[in-house]
Amino acid sequence: MFQDQNVVYIGRKPVMSYVLAVMTHLNRPDATEVVLKARGNAITTAVDTAEVTRRRFMETLQIDKIDVGTEELTQQDGRTRAVSTIEITLKR
Amino acid sequence: MFQDQNVVYIGRKPVMSYVLAVMTHLNRPDATEVVLKARGNAITTAVDTAEVTRRRFMETLQIDKIDVGTEELTQQDGRTRAVSTIEITLKR
Question: How high is the ipTM of this complex?
Fold first, then answer.
């Protein structure tokens, strides 16, 4: 499956695994930004990831943009449910 | 206790109670903006509140600014713990 190389998808893993993914990405010489994408309860983990990376590991890292939105998820019974989303763009 | 009249503090109540607080605030003739403040797991509820208010009840409402940060909480045993925060400014 193709995965956008600029994006770290935030799910249910511990915050430090996403911090590591962000650091790994930004340590490439040609990478200057990364986008954290999350929905639902993972939104808090996305904010934690941005804050921990910035405060503990990469103090020059800046939060360039934060967008929130809503996605319609179709459930197994065919009904749709709205879930909030966040995209946090980090720049070094 | 003095409570900043522009601010809705988001905690553990259902999303709709915060949506109602936002609407009540913005229906005053002199109020044009409101700030949602949350930390930890309530961050997701803050995003939900902004999205539900904007999509279902007040389609002219705009997200003016989103800031994230970190607060140091002192626990009962004297140790400190970092917790992520969010502030979402809504304008009508």
Answer: 0.89
